[in-house]
Amino acid sequence: MIEEDMKHPSPIALHKALERVWGTPPGLARLAAVNHNIIGKRFMLTALSFFAIGGLLAMLIRTQLASSESAFMDAEQYAQIFTMHGSIMMFLFAIPFFEGVAIYLLPKLLGTRDLAFPRLTAYGYWCYLFGGSMLIAALIGGVAPNSGWFMYPPLSSNSYSPGINADVWLLAITFVEISALAAAIEIMVTVLKLRAAGMSLDKMPIFAWYMLVVATMMLVGFPPLIVGSVLLELERAFHLPFFDPSRGGDPLLWQHLFWLFGHPEVYIIFLPAAGAISTILPVFAGAPLAGYRLIVAALVAMAFLSFGLWVHHMYAVGIPHVALSFFSAASALVAVPTGIQIFAWLATLSQGRPRFSVPMLHILGFLFTFVIGGLTGVMLAIVPFDWQAHDTHFVVAHLHYVLVGGFVFPMLAAAYYWLPHLSGRQPVQHLSQAAFWMLFIGFHVTFFMMHLTGLRGMPRRIFEYPIESGWETLNFISSMGSFVMTMGFALVALDFILLFRFGRRHRRNPWRAGTLEWAMATPPPSYNFASLPSIERRADLLDPDQLGSQLASGKGYLGVPRHARMELLAVEMLSGTPEHVVRLPNQTFLPLWTAAATGCFFLSLLFKFYWLTPITFASIILLFLLWSGDTAEKTDVGSLPVGRGRKLPPHMETARPPSWWAMIFALAADATAYISLLFGCLFLWVSAPNWPPQKIPHVELAGPAIAAIALLVAAWAGRSAAARSPHAIGWLALTGFAHLVAAATLLWLAMAALPDPRSHALVSSVFVVLTYAALRSGLGIVISGYGIWRIRSGYVSQRRNVDLRLGRLWHDFSAVTGLAAAGFPFVMTILASELSR
């Protein structure tokens, strides 16, 4: 039925036909955009706007600290300003900016037309914008978070932060983190499945490797912070005492959960920047990247090590000496994979004839700055030195050398390198060089002085200091440097404006690069490639000029639009062999409405309109269910011609389509959150004071046994439904009923069979674990009902049963985690009883 003539039209006719399919209409319809070119640019522009706000707050901080006993701000104003500065820079600028870069660039570098789930990308952007706006609105309203960007309890608890300031941080940051998790899944599936034909893993562009590792780290790193934020908000809103030592909680639990996220986050910020350098530097060195495979191995090692370093930030809290030795050694060890990358870059430079244009200036600025930051990091990894410098401005200086040096200079190198791609114009070089030197000098004058004030004992987070401290001169110099640096950023902004207004137009590939993003017109069309490439060499050693003209004339894959559908090529994960055709959904307002409903959900929690919370939650679920309507088929399609004499099946008729992998990764994130929660509960048993409670709760066996049996039945019926599709309505009904029994039993156990969860952290822990499992079964009911609707609508056949197979994954996962939840009350009771002996 979809067979059609694959005769190639002329390049101009092909361009017009593809633009009609992939383009986004102007006006209000732009709000429905899902194209990665638009969403990527929105991410970057929004992140830069937040960066400007964060930078302004930094200037206020430096103005306050420029002199001793300054009356510029009082303590409360300063607390809000420095908390918002850190939160904005970490959560609203650094990570989202390179998410935007990745969203814009990855499909081009990989030789495809878009990301795997464009609507998810758009939803992530709106969540990011709305969540960030909540924080900015709180700042304008004078109720911004004021407990530091790390929100340590008890300072952030109700006792010391009674307003909504801390709630704003906890809920808004969790809202923004939805965006990060969405981006992580999107990037992982895209890199692994949507590449050019022939692009095996060892031929991928190095930037894709960096982003694959970063996305994996985000998938595992963000759930612990989400769990910590939920637990702290539960304590603030409902008095469940996870961090209250008088009732069996422990403030150190927050530090563990926060830094389980926080330390990998440093590498989540650094690695995309390093990926940009590994892409740009060989172009200006005129030599291929040295040690490609060694760099990939170093990346994986760095990601692995970064999750073993979180205690690196907690040396002063009373960790046993053996553990301190382990974490100190691991902290120093991470310098090895970092050093491998730096030496690979130096080797690349040594093999070519470097061109010192503006991107290279910023790369050299990065190398100088980051090496200093790395050395001070090794100093802080050594426990005796850390104890001396802990919580001083030395740590602030180190943090900025690593994050600003490791991020901002590469970001500007990337901006100058890829702005010609984005705009079709080249920058005005003279202003660019002046801006670089003002930034470089201003940066080092600002932050090098902080090493000295820190070594002289100046604590961080203080809003004033006495005149006799001897810190005033160094602080004044530091503040002057910050103003020079700000003028440098202003020059960069002016340079970019001039570029878009007066920049010279250029031909394709102005830098003579060897990567696929230059094998297209600039600025790029909405579909990227008129036809999709097939490559035989490593993806940074190509000839974009020759390849671009071939692809524009439709001589690659999918060079003919089919029934006005947006189609991509999916490949086998390792070899890059073409596997199936992916059909993408069209533009829609649904991501915007879904994000708005998600925002209402978080606002209902913030303003304690709890009656509204279930309504908004149900709205979110309903809107998500509406997403998949326009990519489904009501009949089996069979193999489709894709060009070059090949035929491939559509994604809905294959065993492992992108949605299957997305579900796997989503479950991995859920499992990480669940393990973090269980870790937190067991940590309280091991470490918290006032354990065990005076009265250890007793749960009868019957309730957990009924829940466990119901979950097993749900998993069995879900598997049977997937195996017997499309004749599976009865099995899905049984699945939904079993989930209903499980959810009701688990909720009854949490609400009625336990003592008051506010009485002790043990009861709170069991309560949350049971409720979490009940929520998962509740979603199992929805998924079962969705499967029934899809069958009755004709979207499921024996070949087109991916919806039921996704459901099976969920039911299996719910059974495994639900069984652990059903046994959890008994485990905690036994452990608590051991303590009482």
TrEMBL record:
It catalyses: 4 Fe(II)-[cytochrome c] + O2 + 8 H(+)(in) = 4 Fe(III)-[cytochrome c] + 2 H2O + 4 H(+)(out). Keywords: Cell membrane, Copper, Electron transport, Heme, Iron, Membrane, Metal-binding, Plasmid, Respiratory chain, Translocase, Transmembrane, Transmembrane helix, Transport. Gene3D superfamilies: Cytochrome c oxidase, subunit III, four-helix bundle (1.20.120.80), Cytochrome c oxidase-like, subunit I domain (1.20.210.10). Pathway: Energy metabolism; oxidative phosphorylation. One of its GO terms (cellular component) is plasma membrane. Coiled coil: none annotated. PROSITE patterns: COX1, COX1_CUB. SUPFAM superfamilies: Cytochrome c oxidase subunit I-like, Cytochrome c oxidase subunit III-like. It comes from the Bacteria. PANTHER family: CYTOCHROME BO(3) UBIQUINOL OXIDASE SUBUNIT 1 (PTHR10422:SF35), CYTOCHROME C OXIDASE SUBUNIT 1 (PTHR10422). This is cytochrome-c oxidase. It comes from Sinorhizobium sojae CCBAU 05684.
